[in-house]
TrEMBL record, chain A:
It holds the Pfam family BPD_transp_1. This is ABC transporter permease. It is a multi-pass membrane protein. Keywords: Cell membrane, Membrane, Transmembrane, Transmembrane helix, Transport. Belongs to the binding-protein-dependent transport system permease family. Residues 111-320 form the ABC transmembrane type-1 domain. It comes from the Bacteria.
From TrEMBL, chain B:
Keywords: Signal. Residues 1-22 form the signal peptide. Pfam families: SBP_bac_5. Coiled coil: none annotated. This is Peptide ABC transporter substrate-binding protein. It is found in: Periplasm. Its main location: periplasm. InterPro entries: Peptide/Ni-bd, SBP_5, SBP_5_dom.
UniProtKB/TrEMBL annotation, chain C:
This is ABC transporter ATP-binding protein. One of its GO terms (molecular function) is ATP binding. InterPro entries: AAA+_ATPase, ABC_transp_ATP-bind, ABC_transporter-like_ATP-bd, ABC_transporter-like_CS, Oligopep_ABC_C, P-loop_NTPase. Pfam families: ABC_tran, oligo_HPY. Signal peptide: none annotated. Residues 10-260 form the ABC transporter domain.
Length: 334, 567, 345
């Protein structure tokens, strides 16, 4: 398994380099202009000067190599030197065109709120999806299952920009229970501030969790149904095991194998942020960073973010495969 | 000018007296939401409105514009003019004098060196300065003494108030940005995110494209201001949710740029937590009259001076068309608080606004009929007026846009009431405004009798805008249909006024000329102005001192904002 | 019903196992699949009762129903003196050690995520209070008994061959010292070379532990080898039940005759002379069984009565039961069909 993991990681390097080049070329081909969002009163000559100062005058391969150097060499070296105190660690970093500040700092700044809200919604979503999936499958076609199916369908098909605005109107405007705008500067220092954090997280987390839960509970249900009819379940019953043991030990453990990998594969989405939900609740995490960078034609930020997403997707694909190997004794990597 | 400015300043001071009594920082926190988030605090690195306005809380220009578009001295002692000797008589230099005792928020004094540095910073060709237009034609900026700077232009500038005036051109601290000239500008992240300024607030935490935390500037020139100790400037989301947070939930105090349908905004406002405020600039929705004949039979000479319009060349017809329109109703249906009826094509700033044409505010169907009767246009069997075999039948074009099509329908009805037949036509905006000389449907070609669109000009100076209606500006096949004079208006008198303005430096004289031009266009009914479209923001009912301003940053007077105690 | 001494270990009377069919938007109950429809049989202690029939005839369902792996529709089942036909789940669970099952597919019937020791030891955890080492010792004993190497205890099922897996299944079934084991086609999924080994193992274990088997199979020759008595099922019903030799020598029911005619003879001379009875048509759906005799749609001898009246399952000779209108009082000596195709191979 270790050899397998190392081999996969080594294979990932050329893959990622190819991905970074493809992303770069795609972004470059896409019609986007970093000065497009400026007011019309700024004349074309000034726009051209701004473009030149962003380095858009250089040929594409120079710009790509520059990005590679800044991202793969300068950034890690800076971090290393600052940690070890060897040098200044002030090599030129990847700079955003919109904010003129290092992209990596922007990402680091936005990661907490994304992890809090999107990550928590994933955890909550999984936590409610599993029991719902299990019970729905065990009592297939019962009222519980029918309601679960309906709720999943709703959660899956009703977009978050609708549910988001709906809960804001109900809980912020009418009832006034929760803030409609997320405060990213809020720090949890004591019980009081923790409660505030909970209050401001409830709505975005609930909206996203519904969506996540809808997806995962369907997987869980299908997987449970697959296993419930297996012969080994009959064997377990024939052994005279308690029904709880049969369902929770035999059926659930086997059903979880595919679900766990689906859950692992979904983790990169957390880091990708939830563009729409972040926008609706003004969480301003990584998803919002990506969308405004795209809108603003901020190529270095889009390039760096999408590349990091690519890394995460590759890593979590590997994690999913390794987990499968650990969970399912039938699968062995060598 | 000077006196007027002082009076206005005094009036503003009276208006804000309750706040003036307060102590600095006594009103706690004020929360502002912009649905587009600022990405930097350095206005020279981003030309976006959101960045300019956020930065205006921190960095300030020598002079700025008040809510009526008048220039008021800000960091300067006074606004230099030809009269007070601040502007040379050949209009090539302007000399500014800084107020005494000004301090940066870090406690160091503001000097003329900072002003000179600001110019150098923006003028550096490698820096990609977004506001370099403001410093056009500047050949030199010299510090005369610690508080005096002279700006020299390469050409005579009748309006020399580009550099260091308005939210786009504030003064930055030389010491902080000394190493950030030219290509190094983007690398000074700390300075770009937290510029040291002279404004009422200073940045404590800047999260690009998300939220800015500010606190009162301890070295602000007025020891009693600002009333608020901290500012939270949140960005992101969408217009409706920003409006909701101010008008319905009361979480925020001020929301910017509420481009929402009148009924949506009205419903939000009815929650009673906040107020919608609007201010009006120069954007006017107008109907242009074609003074030339657009008859397709004329081929290449269609809509050119060679053939006057068969009936629109009669001033009585043009006037009757204007009189039949109910501008107040158009505003109510199309724009709500974001619009107001206008009788001028140059509706602002205040000093340029004519009051000579306000008669158009009242619809007068009977008057219009009488006018047409008197001019010999009598209704035929089908109710359409005609004279000498010419029927009053109009082709009315505009771009495709829900509000514009509502306007077309209403106006068609009113015109039919006075016996004028109207055929409506709408053209996709990208074609209509696209300016493609090969397309017959551009607003420049004007192959119709009347057309409707909106236009405005940047800044407060109308010189270039009013020059649009010179003879030579008429689009013709010879000019590839380029030009701004859509009505093909041609008047020697008017052209003389334009030429005179180009040589006049004195503001009052310039205003007189601009008004005269406006009145001439209005009274000849060359252009039928309909609606003056404004900018709309919303503020909480507990936030006092807000004065909307379209000529400068909306937050221009944030130092005077306060919390109303009664609520 | 049986007179081969003593009380039978297992008594089944009028067992019915119907699965409801739901259809439509509101999932209304529109019918039943009558997988097992009124069967009765006895299994004596230490004997092997073979249960044969075509696939789909309900024999596996019958086996599972007898162990109450289903909630049965009707009838009674008595195992070792206890009526288990409608005891609740918890009580049934405590009765499980007495009766066990060996499944057809040794791969699917073993939990892929449990080791051999886990699979064999799990019932011990549930039903006996043994220490960890005692339990392991018992697992080893069982592995010895079925001929599995003790060193395999920590391996997973997928690492074994089919025969070995079935040995695991058998060891698992034996773990709680059952009296009665339902062997549901235990050799169907195995290579022919392995089949004999497993059958022999089952026989050895029967002798060693005094087990009683209900041996379900479609393999008539294997049943002949292992069973003491044989029951033949067709479409949810037992059509004939008799001591082994009796049934194989003198089948009475036309269906049994047809089944047996398909078994190849080892002797080529006799094989050449043997008459094949080829049944035409398909087995009717168990949700829509024919009126009268279930077999009437395919029976070479069917007459009007067969399509109207269901034949009674009755004893026609000592220990020989059958359900056919033409058998019994007017005993038919020759199993000569009067209709149907005769084909020489």
């Amino acid at each position: 398994m270790l050899n397998y993991t190392i081999r996969r990681l080594l294979l990932a390097i050329p893959t990622l380099i190819a991905i970074s080049l493809i992303i770069f070329l795609l972004l470059d081909l896409a019609p986007s202009d970093p000065t497009a969002n400026l007011p019309l009163t700024i004349p074309p000559e000034v726009r051209e000067k701004i473009r030149q100062s962003l380095g858009l005058g250089d040929p594409i391969y120079i710009r790509y190599l520059l990005w590679c150097k800044q991202f793969f060499i300068n950034e890690p070296l800076n971090i290393l030197e600052q940690w070890l105190g060897w040098g200044e660690g002030d090599r030129l970093r990847v700079l955003s065109w919109q904010t003129r500040s290092p992209v990596v700092d922007l990402i680091v700044e936005r990661t907490p709120q994304t992890l809090w809200v999107v990550g928590m919604s994933y955890v909550v979503g999984v936590a409610i999806a599993l029991p719902i999936g299990i019970i729905s499958a065990y009592r297939q076609y019962s009222w519980f299952d029918q309601i679960g199916t309906f709720v999943s369908m709703v959660g899956f098909s009703v977009p978050t920009f609708f549910t988001g605005v709906l809960v804001i109107v109900i809980f912020s405007v009418w009832l006034g229970w929760f803030p409609s705008i997320y405060d990213t500067t809020h720090e949890v220092t004591d019980w009081e501030s923790f409660l505030f954090q909970v209050r401001q997280m409830i709505m975005p987390v609930a909206v996203l969790a519904l969506f996540n839960a809808a997806q995962i509970s369907r997987f869980m249900r299908a997987s449970m149904l697959d296993n419930l009819n297996q012969d080994y379940v009959r064997t377990a019953r024939a052994k005279g095991l308690r029904e709880r043991t049969v369902v929770l030990i035999h059926v659930l453990r086997n059903s979880l194998i595919p679900v766990v990998t689906v859950i692992a594969l979904g983790v990169p989405q957390i880091f990708g942020g939830a563009i729409i939900t972040e926008q609706v609740f003004k969480v301003n995490g990584l998803g919002q960073l990506l969308i405004i960078s795209i809108q603003g034609g901020d190529l270095p930020t889009v390039q760096t973010l999408t590349f990091i997403f690519a890394v995460l997707i590759i890593v979590f694909n590997l994690v999913a495969d390794v987990l499968y190997g650990i969970l399912d004794p039938r699968i062995r990597y060598d | 000018m000077r006196l007027r400015t002082l009076l206005l300043g005094a009036a503003a001071a009276v208006a804000i007296t309750p706040a003036a009594l307060a102590e600095r920082g006594s009103d706690g926190e004020v929360k502002i939401i912009y649905w587009q988030a600022p990405s930097t605090m350095n206005p020279y690195l981003s030309g976006g409105t959101k960045e300019l306005e956020a930065a205006s809380l921190v960095v300030e220009p020598l002079a700025r514009y008040d809510q009526d578009g008048n220039m008021v001295p800000w960091l300067a002692e006074s606004v230099p003019t030809v009269d007070n000797g601040g502007v040379s008589s050949d209009l090539t230099t302007i000399t500014w004098k800084l107020r005494e005792g000004l301090l940066w928020s870090d406690g160091s004094p503001v000097t003329s060196a900072d002003v000179v540095f600001t110019w150098k910073y923006c003028a550096d060709p490698a820096g990609g300065c977004a506001q370099s237009e403001k410093y056009n034609d500047v050949t030199d900026v010299k510090a005369v003494d610690d508080l005096t700077v002279t700006v020299t232009f390469g050409v005579p500038k009748p309006f020399p108030y580009g550099p260091f005036v308005g939210a786009q051109a504030p003064i930055i601290q030389a010491a902080q940005f000394a190493d950030c000239l030219g290509a190094k500008a983007p690398e000074c992240t700390d300075a770009n995110f937290g510029p040291i300024g002279t404004g009422p607030f200073q940045v404590t935490d800047f999260r690009p494209n998300d939220v800015i935390s500010l606190e009162a500037n301890p070295n602000y020139r007025d020891p009693a201001k600002p009333a608020f100790a901290t500012v939270t400037f949140k960005g992101g989301g969408d217009t409706a949710s920003a409006g909701r947070s101010v008008l319905e939930t009361g979480e925020f105090d001020y929301a910017w740029n509420m481009q929402l349908a009148p009924d949506v905004l009205g419903a939000m406002e009815s929650a009673g937590k906040g107020t919608v405020v609007s201010a009006f600039g120069t954007l006017v929705e107008r109907i242009m009259i074609n003074l030339t004949n657009p008859d397709p039979a004329l081929g290449d000479e269609r809509s050119t001076k060679a053939h006057p319009h068969p009936f629109l060349s009669d001033p009585a017809v043009r006037q009757a068309l204007s009189m039949a329109i109910d501008r107040a109703l158009l505003v109510e249906i199309g724009y709500g608080s974001a619009g107001r009826p206008s009788c001028n094509v140059l509706p602002a700033p205040e000093i340029y606004k004519s009051t000579a044409n306000d008669g158009c505010l009242v619809q007068d169907i009977e008057g219009a009929k009488a006018l047409l009767d008197g001019a010999g246009w009598v209704p035929g069997a089908d109710g359409i007026r005609a004279k000498d075999g010419v029927r009053l039948s109009i082709l009315y074009q505009t771009s495709t846009n829900a509000v514009r099509q509502d306007f077309q329908a209403l106006i068609k009805q009113w015109w039919s009431d006075i016996g004028v037949e109207t055929e409506l036509r709408n053209i996709d905006a990208s074609v209509f405004f696209g300016g493609d000389p090969g397309s017959p449907d551009t607003f420049q070609k004007f192959y119709a009798d009347v057309e409707m669109y909106a236009n405005n000009f940047d800044g407060t100076d109308p010189e270039a805008y009013m020059a649009n209606w010179e003879c030579k500006q008429a689009p013709t096949p010879e000019t590839q249909w380029q030009g701004n004079n859509m009505p093909r208006y041609c008047s020697e008198e008017y052209d003389a006024l334009v030429a005179k303005m180009a040589q006049t430096g004195k503001l009052e004289d310039r205003a007189t000329l601009a008004k005269a031009m406006n009145d001439k266009l209005m009274q000849e009914y060359i252009i039928l102005p309909l609606v003056d479209r404004g900018r709309v923001s919303a503020h909480s009912n507990t936030l006092g001192g807000v004065i909307m301003n379209v000529w400068d940053s909306e937050l221009w007077n944030a130092a005077d904002w306060y919390r109303t105690k009664t609520q | 019903m049986s007179d081969t001494g003593g009380q039978p270990l297992v008594q089944v009377r009028g067992l019915k196992m119907h699965f409801p069919i739901y259809a439509g938007i509101f999932r209304r109950h529109v019918g039943d699949i009558k997988a097992v429809d009124d069967i009765s049989l006895d299994i004596n202690e230490s004997e092997t009762l073979g249960l044969v029939g075509e696939s789909g005839c309900g024999k596996s369902t019958a086996g599972r129903a007898v162990l109450r792996l289903y909630d049965i529709t009707d009838g009674s089942i008595t195992v070792d003196g206890t009526d288990i036909s409608d005891v609740d789940k918890e009580k049934l669970r405590h009765l499980r050690p007495k009766m066990q099952m060996i499944f057809q597919d040794p791969q699917a019937s073993l939990n892929p995520r449990m080791t051999v020791a886990g699979i064999i030891g799990e019932p011990l955890v549930e039903h006996m209070s043994l220490s960890r080492s005692e339990r392991l010792e018992r697992v080893y004993q069982l592995m010895d008994a079925v001929g599995l190497n003790r060193s395999f205890a920590d391996r997973y099922p997928h690492e074994f061959s089919g025969g070995q897996r079935q040995r695991i299944g058998i060891a698992r079934a034996l773990a709680l010292n059952p009296k009665f084991i339902v062997c549901d086609e235990p050799i169907a999924a195995l290579d022919v070379s392995i089949q004999a080994q497993v059958v022999n193992l089952l026989e050895d274990l029967q002798e060693q532990f005094g087990l009683t088997y209900l041996f379900i199979s479609h393999d008539l020759s294997m049943v002949r080898h292992i069973a003491d008595r044989v029951a033949v099922m067709y479409l949810g019903k037992i059509v004939e039940l008799a001591p082994r030799d009796d049934l194989y020598e003198r089948p009475l029911h036309p269906y049994t005759q047809a089944l047996l005619s398909a078994v190849p003879e080892p002797d080529p001379v006799r094989e050449a002379e043997r008459k094949h009875i080829i049944l035409t048509g398909d087995v009717p759906s168990p949700s829509n069984a024919p009126i009268g005799c279930n077999f009437c749609t395919r029976c070479p001898r069917a007459e009007q009565i067969c399509r109207e009246i269901e034949p009674e399952f009755r004893q026609v000779e000592k220990g020989h039961y059958t359900a056919c209108h033409f058998v019994g009082d007017t005993e038919i000596k020759t199993a000569e069909p009067t209709a149907g195709e005769r084909v020489k191979p």
